[in-house]
Amino acid sequence: MRKILTVVPLLLLAGCVNDSATFYADGTRDHTLTVRRQQAYFWKEDAQYTLMAARLPECQRAIPLGEMPLEDLEFELFASGENIWSLRAGKYVWQIETQGCTLVAEGGTTTATGSKLGTYVVEGKKTRMRFDADAAPASGAAPAGK
What we know:
- 8% of the residues lie in helices and 50% in strands.
- By secondary structure, it is mainly beta.
- The strands form two sheets. Strands 8-7-6-5-9-10 form a six-stranded antiparallel beta sheet, with no helix packed on it. Strands 1-2-3-4 form a four-stranded antiparallel beta sheet, with no helix packed on it.
- The radius of gyration is 17 Å and the shape is globular.
């Protein structure tokens, strides 16, 4: 009986989504922007999204983006200067800078500035999240998807 009680909670979590996609700002693993998607329970239609900003060794921060649909969602990434980034999902925008690892602005009235680098794409529950780079990355950034 004890073994069954140990296995049942694991089965409830087995169908949950937990994935991410990464943009490599300078072509190395030291300066990255990663969007992570985590589904709490397999029956939920929403997931918790988090932006992981890193510019090692000075900056490493998790910025909660909130709960949003599990499927059919896009986050557009913009660069607007050295170490300044905008992430947009619909009308909501988060602006971060990775020099001091701070969230500069967020909200529905904030605008995404700079040149578009690419899009974090969430197609469905069964497909992994990915980063699709635009054809011409700005300021020598070297994007790569995960």
